[in-house]
Structures are given as structure tokens and as C-alpha cells.
């Protein structure tokens, strides 16, 4: 039977996974990666603390291993992530105001330029909105340099690689009624109206028992797409097991398939044992590398809608 990537390609989409460089030498891990997925996202290797551990000293060794592995096998790369309140190196915390703004934009420029032509899509800014009901930006050192930090980052990224798809990426934007979803919709609408170069919204899609796939998930994807941007499901996992979990994955795949501008799905890891969720089982392959019911449900949905 076809792989996830082949089945997705027949619908004009991709099927990706988060990858960590330290596991590329694991033959079970690499075997599944190479067979099933056509897009890879470095799980941590492109974050600020990894790529610029000291100011002006850029380290691309681990990220390059993932990018090389992917490109040598005809896969594409999602870059994750240029700017995030979390995972920052210590030196950034000692900066503020114009010095921080300059360092922030320099980081975007240098990293995007290093990967120019090799990274297909960038998560330019990750998780910049607050949870809860305020719809406000999240407080962070970047936010304190001024509300326009996000658009400045997108302009810097576009200048450094005009061919890359530029995404704003966040979680808790799956539910249409959520204040955060509405706030991100407003930002994207405003950016499109003012010519800020945003091409895509990344909807992380971390689902669990207390946070199930919402009934209006497809409608949310449609709302983003209606603003003239692609939608990518960027960090999909569904905590659970068996038929219930399979149904969650199926519904996510069907929602993406129903929205023409939902261009691809990335799961946040390969085997359950690769997941960031400690002792969870939220992925498509079990710890032995065998496909779970959720795998077959996704494959079936990609085939049959
Ligand atoms: O590799 C180091 C190890 O050398 C060190 O001794 C150890 C001690 O803490 O840490 C190890 O690094 C950890 C890394 O994962 C690799 O396992 C970090 O501490 C840990 O913080 C890091 O967690 C990552 C997390 O983001 C924070 O950056 C997860 O792997 C990663 O899955 C998770 O991914 C995020 C997305 O980037 C954004 N959206 C939410 C998603 C899930 O939290």
C-alpha cells in the first residue's frame, strides 16, 4: 500500500513529521521517516538556543544534518522556528529595546539566508499570542520591543529568501470560537491588507482528551484560508489510543482534505516513544515502529476522504 506521503501527494498535499538529528542513525526511525514522509521539521535544532547560542556565533551542524538527510531523499523542509519566547539563549535576555530588535532581525536574516532555497516553509514567529480570553499578544522580550515586531520579522524573512513560504505558527487556534483564534485571524487579515508578507498560518494541532479535535476545526481552517493564506497543520498529535485516537486523526485529515488551501499535515514525531508528551502515546507508530490504528485511519482518509 502507498505511504502517507504518496497518499497525500495524490491529493496535492504533503505529509510530514518532526525529526530530531540524534535519531537519524536509528535504523527503525530512519526507515519509517524515509518511507512515509515527504516533509521534515527539525523538532528543536533550528530554535534560537540551538542556532545562535552566543551572539553572532551561528551553529547549524545539527539542523544541517536533518536538512541534508531530507533534501538528499527528495523531501522538503519546514523551518521551525525563527522567533519564539521560549528556547532562547541567555545572551538575548540581556538585551532590550533597539539592541534586541536589531539582534532579533539579524537572527531572522542570517538563519533564513543560510537556508535560502533549502527550506520550503518557515515558522517565522511561533506562539506570540496569549492563552485565555483576552486575545492579546503574549508578553515576551520581543513583544516589549513594540507591537510591530512580528511584521518586521516577516519582512526580514521575505528579504532573506523571497522563495520561502512564511508562516505564523500557534496552538489553541484550532477552535473557531477561541479568543486566540480570532486574534490571529485579525492579525493575518491586517497583514494581508497592509502588504505584510505572510503566506501561511501554521495550526499546531496538539490534541488530547481535554482538548479534543473541535467540531468547528474545518471551519477554522476555512476562515484562515479565506484570508488568502495557506494553512499547514504543523505539529499534529492526538493523545489516546485505539479507535478513539484513530477517529481523532481521521477527523483532522478529513478537515484538511476539505479545505483546498490546507496544503499539508505534519505529525510531531514518528513513534510514540519519540513524542514530547512524556509517557503519552499520541503518534501514528508505536514504540516498536509498528503502525497503529491511527496510521491506518489517516491513510484511509487520504485515500477516500
Ligand atoms: O537534548 C538536551 C539534553 O542534552 C539535555 O541534557 C536535556 C536537559 O534538559 O535537555 C535536552 O533538550 C531537551 C529537548 O527537548 C530534546 O529532548 C530540552 O530540554 C527540552 O526543552 C526540549 O523540549 C522541546 C520543547 O519543544 C521545548 O523546546 C520538545 O522536544 C519539542 O517537541 C517541543 O516542541 C514544541 C514546539 O517547538 C512548539 N509548539 C509546542 C511543541 C511541544 O511542546
UniProtKB/TrEMBL annotation:
<keyword id="KW-0326">Glycosidase</keyword>
<feature type="domain" description="GH10">
    <location>
        <begin position="1"/>
        <end position="301"/>
    </location>
</feature>
<dbReference type="GO" id="GO:0031176">
    <property type="term" value="F:endo-1,4-beta-xylanase activity"/>
</dbReference>
<keyword id="KW-0732">Signal</keyword>
<dbReference type="InterPro" id="IPR017853">
    <property type="entry name" value="GH"/>
</dbReference>
<dbReference type="InterPro" id="IPR044846">
    <property type="entry name" value="GH10"/>
</dbReference>
<keyword id="KW-0119">Carbohydrate metabolism</keyword>
<keyword id="KW-0858">Xylan degradation</keyword>
<keyword id="KW-0624">Polysaccharide degradation</keyword>
<dbReference type="InterPro" id="IPR001000">
    <property type="entry name" value="GH10_dom"/>
</dbReference>
<dbReference type="Pfam" id="PF00331">
    <property type="entry name" value="Glyco_hydro_10"/>
</dbReference>
<comment type="similarity">
    <text>Belongs to the glycosyl hydrolase 10 (cellulase F) family.</text>
</comment>
<keyword id="KW-0378">Hydrolase</keyword>
<protein>
    <recommendedName>
        <fullName>Beta-xylanase</fullName>
        <ecNumber>3.2.1.8</ecNumber>
    </recommendedName>
</protein>
